[in-house]
């Protein structure tokens, strides 16, 4: 158990309570390790509580890694204050990795950042004040067995710190065998463009929603609306058209094992 308690932890310096890489002060963004070559990092069996931390925009993990890395069986507790800037995972760049069985409660964002090609399995992300997952860039992320609950947005594929031409579209996301529950907007994304190379690709396969007002909302005002009752969306593909293929029904998806079961904060 790692808890941010006492005067030291409340004001600690750094991007995360646990860091996989460190920026060198006054070195124009240079770091200890090259993020695309930061291999062989492993984290397992941690409880991390940053709720009492006062440092702005801090995270439980600054996870800036590449291939042959993994995070497994981790519980993260962040503040649920409406004005919080905390994050569960900050992963602003990197090149691959595997994350599995992680529970994140609270924070402005559960996951914030970007990476070339993560694979994520069995994540439960609950009670964020902005988005369960905010991706500022990627090549392609695969998300399997997500349980996203009680937040304004499930995914935000828009960089909140960029505007206009600087806001380049996220690459692609593939979400399968997952549940969106009590989410106002399932996925916020940039408007689709004529050139597929400039568009965000969204693939949803066997995704169940319950009390989700809008499943996909684009910056041009186009949207895929859903009724508040449970509905199953299968094989929804957004490319250079708003909807290239979509089917929906009321059949329940296959029962999948949830990741980390809910655990009350210690």
UniProtKB/TrEMBL annotation:
<dbReference type="InterPro" id="IPR011050">
    <property type="entry name" value="Pectin_lyase_fold/virulence"/>
</dbReference>
<dbReference type="Pfam" id="PF12708">
    <property type="entry name" value="Pect-lyase_RHGA_epim"/>
</dbReference>
<dbReference type="InterPro" id="IPR024535">
    <property type="entry name" value="RHGA/B-epi-like_pectate_lyase"/>
</dbReference>
<dbReference type="InterPro" id="IPR012334">
    <property type="entry name" value="Pectin_lyas_fold"/>
</dbReference>
<protein>
    <submittedName>
        <fullName>LysM domain-containing protein</fullName>
    </submittedName>
</protein>
<feature type="domain" description="Rhamnogalacturonase A/B/Epimerase-like pectate lyase">
    <location>
        <begin position="11"/>
        <end position="155"/>
    </location>
</feature>
């Amino acid at each position: 158990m790692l808890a941010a308690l006492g005067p030291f932890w409340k004001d600690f310096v750094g991007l995360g309570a646990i860091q996989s890489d460190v920026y060198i002060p006054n070195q124009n963004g240079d770091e200890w390790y090259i993020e695309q070559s930061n291999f062989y990092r492993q984290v397992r069996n941690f409880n991390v509580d940053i709720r009492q931390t006062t440092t702005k925009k801090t995270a439980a993990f600054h996870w800036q890694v590449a291939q042959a890395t993994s995070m497994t069986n981790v519980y993260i507790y962040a503040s649920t204050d409406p004005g919080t800037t905390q994050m569960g995972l900050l992963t602003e760049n990197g090149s691959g990795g595997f994350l599995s069985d992680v529970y994140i409660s609270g924070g402005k964002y559960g996951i914030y950042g970007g990476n070339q090609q993560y694979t994520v399995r069995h994540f439960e992300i609950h009670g964020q004040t902005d988005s369960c997952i905010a991706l500022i860039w990627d090549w392609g992320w695969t998300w399997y067995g997500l349980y996203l609950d009680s937040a304004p947005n499930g995914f935000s594929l828009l960089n909140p710190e960029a505007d206009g031409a600087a806001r380049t579209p996220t690459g692609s996301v593939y979400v399968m065998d997952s549940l969106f529950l009590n989410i106002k907007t399932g996925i916020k994304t940039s408007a689709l463009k004529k050139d597929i190379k400039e568009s965000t690709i969204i693939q949803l396969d066997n995704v169940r929603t319950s009390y989700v007002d809008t499943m996909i909302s684009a910056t041009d005002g186009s949207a895929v609306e859903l009724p508040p009752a449970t509905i199953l969306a299968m094989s929804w593909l957004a490319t250079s058209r708003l909807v290239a293929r979509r089917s929906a029904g009321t059949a329940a998806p296959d029962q999948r094992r949830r990741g980390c079961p809910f655990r009350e904060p210690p």
